[in-house]
Amino acid sequence: MNWIFEPWPWYVAGPMIAFIMFLLLMVGKNFGMSANLRTICAVCGAGNKANFFKFDWKSQKWNLVVVIGAVIGGYVGSHYLTTDMAVAINTDTIADLNVLGFESAGKSYLPDELFETSSLFNVKSILILSIGGLLVGFGARYAGGCTSGHAISGLSDLQLPSFIAVIGFFIGGLTMIHFLFPLIF
Amino acid sequence: MFKSEAASWFRIYEMFKFESFHMYGIIGSALAIGIIVVQFIKRFKIKSFYGEKINFNQKEKSFSRYMFGGIIFGLGWALAGACPGPMFTLVGVGYLPIIIVVIASIIGTFIYGLVRDKIPH
Description:
The complex is a heterodimer. Chain A is mostly helical. Chain A contains eight helices and no strands. The longest helix of chain A is centred in the last third of the chain and has 25 residues, at 160-184. The radius of gyration of chain A is 19 Å and the shape is globular. Chain B is an all-alpha fold. The radius of gyration of chain B is 18 Å and the shape is globular. In chain B, 56% of the residues are buried.
C-alpha cells in the first residue's frame, strides 16, 4: 500500500480524469471547471452589471459540488495520503529555477517564494498571484473554457475550437516562461 | 489532481520547458481515453444514467476568441501555475496565497463579462 503515499504516475491520473469526464457525461453534464468562476460571479449578483451573468446559476450547482470535491480531495490527498510533499522535477528544471531565484525547486510542492503564508505580505508575490489569476479567469471565459473544458472535454470530442484554444494556451504559457519569466524574476 | 502533482506550480513550469513527460502523459492519456469514450457514446448512442440523450457542448465556430483567449489563459496558467481546477485543490491543501489567485480569477471572469461585447469573438 506504500504506493498510495508516493506521487501517482501519469498513467493513473490521466485515466482517472477521463473517468471523471465519463461520469459527468453519464449524468448529463459536461466537464469544465472554469464555468464555476462565472457561476460564482452570478451568485454574487454580477447579473446586475452584465447580461453575461444573467442565467439560472442554480442549474450549475452540480458543478460547484465538483469544486467542493476538489477542495476536499486536496485536503485528504495532502494531509492523509502524502508523506513527502517535494515534487521531483527534472534536475535541469531545478537548476533553471534556482537561477531565477526559486530556492525551493525540487524541495516542495509549490514555490515557497510565492505560496508561503508570508507571501501574503509581499507586494511582488501578491502582484504575481493577482495578475496570474486575472489572466486565467479572463482568458478562460474569453476562450470559452480552460484545461478541462477544452484540452479534455473539447478535444475528446475532436472539436476544432478546442484545438485552437489549446494552441493558444501553449503560445501563452511558452511566452510567459521563456520570455517574461527572466524579466519578472 | 494533488496526488498526480498536476496541481504543482513546478510541474506546470517543467511542462512548458518540455523537460518532463509527466504532464503530457496525464493530459495525453486522459485525452486518448476521452476520445474513445466520446466515440463509443456517439456510435452506440449510449444514454445517460437517467435514460436521456447525452449532449456534447458544441463550441461555436470562431478563431479569434479561442486564440486570443487561449493565449491570455496560457500566460496566467504559467504565471500562477494553476488552472481553474487545481487552484481549488490547492485551497484544500491549505495554501493561503492561492486564495488570491482564486479571487483574482473570479474578478478576471467578471471583467470579461463587462467587456464581452467590446472585444472580438
